[in-house]
């Protein structure tokens, strides 16, 4: 006998219903609710005195014809410590959302809600979810059980989760739309230009665009880019689009157009763009850098386009670690977008993990062709260990002009700060990321001045150390610059072909052949070549060890099975440590033998013995350790003084930009808001005036270097800034580079 079965839900009907509901929220409910929300904030002093609001009776219809239908609706109002049952009379003139907003609550549905939530509960939850991973289920269940323990029961178990989620979702949207409306009102008071699309020529500008100044008032031109492959989205039906009013993402249509252009260039090999100038770097060194990073990527799990719609996120951040743009990794175009917002005479310093390969690709295929003369490429400081020495001579930011002490690791710090969101971004992914970034920007805005002050103190300390080192060297700066230029020229010169070497050897005379034979049998030369081979082997093994630990160090969620895999990886890497230590010991032994030959006069005139590598520091991967380079102390001090000069000049410009931005905002806001106030003094408003204005703002803790990091005092900076790899936040990719540190360091990091 056939059994009656419940019909399967119609997915298309559900999608239409959800789309209609979203349209009503966005077009019919939220816009007219903004003035009532602003008035509620004003009457309650930013929800401080929300208990003073009373439920008002429905007023008579204001139209010529009274509303045909008046519906009475019982609504459960959820507060922190109670559930209040209220009854509303709803009509077209007085919708439920307006009546509830006047009472300090927000509905769960556009027109006929069955539940409302206190604005203070929603405000608390909104701020909580930018500090931790959003988890509506856990919060609503906790609130429901807490109210149940006090004797307040809802309709049935788990009845709060979905409706509370709707309240929170659209309250956040109301908040953002309100901020955007007032920002637009203030922008109308200043002269602005419309930001063009990525492909057209940028408009002439005398200063960065208002968009760029909003993102970073200091408006610096040193930026870093990087991709995060853990931030991805599975292929699934999307909800109706809901874009954050202040989104950081490049529009998908612009990114798709750039992606199509890149694919077309790569497919047509016969029409490759010619290089605009010859690359200075030796191709052998550049190929080695590309091969090492490519090998590391092959060991890392990348998102498959078969399962994921958005495979990663590419970020473009300024040197203050403030996000300028984001773009989904199935596309490109962030660099093109940046130049639309800058004056035509500004040169941008771009830091990237593989900047050498990136510049080579751009010149080979003609990407960013019209902007290449305004781009200066450099490698992020903490990724310098993966590059050949010849590459570092040209791309290391401490050895390139114009970068100061910018390290280019802001993207790594940003990826670490949003790592807790990976498991929770199944839906509303882009909107949630925009919310997190906006919260971080609000928290760091009041701290930009403190950031500049601390960087100035750091630059002063570096200048003192470099000046002392230069004095100990005793060589004139002109001689050091000459030697540095010769070293760069020699070590970046392409190697001659083997055929040329054979021809030159065949052309040697008798005496020259004898001299060549003497060199080939020289004990000093043999030891020197063996030492060079051991040092290269040690570099390769340390680099491989770092890449093997990369997966362990970047893991945010430690599941049981994953923990076993990570433990196995750690033990396997640890078993190879004695081999690395032995190679290091052999190298130091050869250094001692070479030094002995030099002292005994058995080495060529002017020969200098290589410096031994301390066994204690080989695991730290400091980019200035002896394992990575052979620059003498005088040249290092000279280069550091150059970076100090650049950093001080950059900090002065950033300070002026920040003061100009604040003075302009002050001059625009006061008259437009109807505030009668005198002109801004040169030193800014008093602390009491600022404190009186900051009622509902996110204030960063004093002494916090950046919005993703921890509190760092000036004394702590002296310890953290001992090497070139100073970092003022938790940098997951580098600061945990050695997982086998002692227990004290392990506990301090985790």
From TrEMBL:
Residues 1-20, 706-734 are annotated as: Disordered. Residues 64-131 form the CxC1-like cysteine cluster associated with KDZ transposases domain. Pfam families: CxC1, KDZ. It comes from the Eukaryota. Residues 714-729 have a biased composition (Acidic residues). This is CxC1-like cysteine cluster associated with KDZ transposases domain-containing protein. It comes from Mycena rosella (Pink bonnet).
């Amino acid at each position: 006998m056939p059994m009656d079965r419940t019909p399967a839900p119609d997915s298309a009907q559900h999608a239409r219903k959800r789309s209609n509901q979203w349209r009503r929220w966005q077009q019919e409910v939220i816009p007219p609710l903004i003035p009532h929300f602003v008035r509620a904030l004003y009457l309650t002093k930013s929800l401080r005195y929300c208990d003073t609001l009373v439920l008002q009776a429905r007023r008579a219809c204001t139209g010529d014809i009274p509303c045909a239908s008046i519906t009475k609706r019982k609504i459960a109002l959820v507060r922190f410590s109670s559930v209040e049952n209220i009854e509303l009379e709803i009509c077209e003139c007085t919708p439920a959302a307006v009546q509830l907003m006047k009472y300090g609550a927000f509905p769960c549905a556009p027109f006929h809600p069955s539940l409302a939530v206190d604005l203070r509960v929603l405000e608390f939850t909104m701020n909580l979810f930018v500090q931790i991973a959003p988890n509506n289920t856990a919060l609503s269940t906790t609130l429901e059980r807490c109210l149940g323990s006090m004797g307040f029961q809802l309709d049935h178990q788990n009845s709060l989760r979905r409706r509370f989620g709707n309240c929170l979702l659209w309250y956040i949207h109301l908040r953002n739309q309100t901020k955007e409306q007032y920002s637009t009102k203030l922008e109308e008071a200043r002269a602005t230009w419309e930001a063009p699309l990525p492909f057209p020529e940028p408009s002439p500008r005398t200063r960065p665009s208002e968009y760029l100044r909003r993102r970073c008032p200091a408006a610096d031109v040193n930026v870093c880019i990087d991709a995060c492959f853990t931030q991805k989205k599975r292929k699934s039906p999307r909800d109706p689009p809901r874009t954050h009013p202040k989104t950081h993402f490049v529009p998908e249509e612009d990114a798709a157009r750039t992606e199509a252009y890149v694919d077309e260039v790569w497919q047509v090999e016969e029409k490759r763009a010619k290089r605009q100038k010859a690359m200075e770097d030796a191709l052998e060194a550049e190929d080695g850098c590309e091969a090492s990073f490519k090998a590391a990527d092959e060991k890392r799990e990348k998102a498959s386009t078969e399962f994921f719609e958005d495979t990663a996120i590419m970020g473009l951040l300024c040197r203050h670690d403030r996000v300028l743009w984001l773009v989904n990794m199935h596309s490109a175009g962030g660099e093109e977008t940046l130049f639309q917002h800058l004056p035509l005479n500004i040169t941008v310093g771009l830091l990237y993990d593989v900047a050498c390969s990136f510049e080579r690709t751009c010149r080979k295929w003609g990407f960013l062709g019209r902007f290449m003369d305004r781009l200066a490429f450099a490698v992020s400081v903490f990724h310098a260990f993966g590059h050949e020495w010849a590459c570092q001579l040209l791309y290391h930011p401490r050895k390139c002009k114009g970068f100061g002490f910018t390290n280019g690791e802001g993207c790594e710090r940003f990826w670490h700060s949003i790592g807790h969101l990976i498991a929770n971004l199944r839906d509303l992914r882009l909107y949630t990321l925009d919310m997190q970034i906006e919260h971080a920007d609000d928290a760091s805005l009041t701290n930009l001045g403190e950031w500049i002050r601390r960087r100035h103190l750091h630059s002063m300390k570096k200048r003192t150390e470099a000046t002392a080192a230069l004095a100990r060297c005793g060589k004139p700066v002109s001689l050091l610059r000459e030697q540095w230029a010769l070293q760069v020229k020699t070590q970046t010169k392409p190697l001659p072909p083997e055929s040329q070497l054979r021809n030159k050897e065949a052309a040697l005379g008798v005496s020259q052949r004898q001299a060549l034979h003497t060199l080939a049998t020289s004990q000093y030369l043999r030891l020197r070549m063996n030492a060079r081979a051991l040092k290269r082997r040690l570099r390769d093994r340390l680099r491989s060890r770092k890449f093997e630990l990369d997966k362990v160090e970047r893991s945010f969620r430690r599941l049981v099975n994953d923990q076993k895999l990570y433990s196995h990886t750690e033990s396997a890497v640890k078993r190879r440590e004695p081999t690395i230590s032995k190679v290091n010991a052999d190298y130091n032994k050869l250094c001692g033998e070479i030094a002995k030959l030099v002292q005994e006069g058995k080495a060529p005139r002017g020969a200098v013995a290589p410096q031994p590598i301390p066994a204690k520091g080989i695991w730290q991967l400091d980019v200035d350790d002896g394992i990575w380079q052979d620059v003498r102390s005088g040249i290092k001090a000279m280069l550091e003084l150059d970076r100090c000069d650049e950093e001080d000049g950059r900090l002065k410009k950033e300070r002026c930009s920040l003061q100009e931005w604040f003075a302009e905002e002050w001059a625009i806001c006061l008259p437009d808001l109807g505030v009668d106030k005198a002109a801004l003094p040169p030193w800014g408003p008093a602390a009491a005036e600022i404190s009186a204005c900051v009622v509902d703002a996110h204030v960063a803790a004093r002494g916090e270097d950046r919005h993703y990091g921890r509190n760092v005092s000036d004394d702590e900076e002296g310890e953290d800034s001992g090497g070139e790899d100073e970092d003022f936040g938790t940098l997951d990719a580098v600061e945990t580079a050695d997982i086998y540190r002692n227990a004290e360091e392990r506990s301090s990091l985790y």
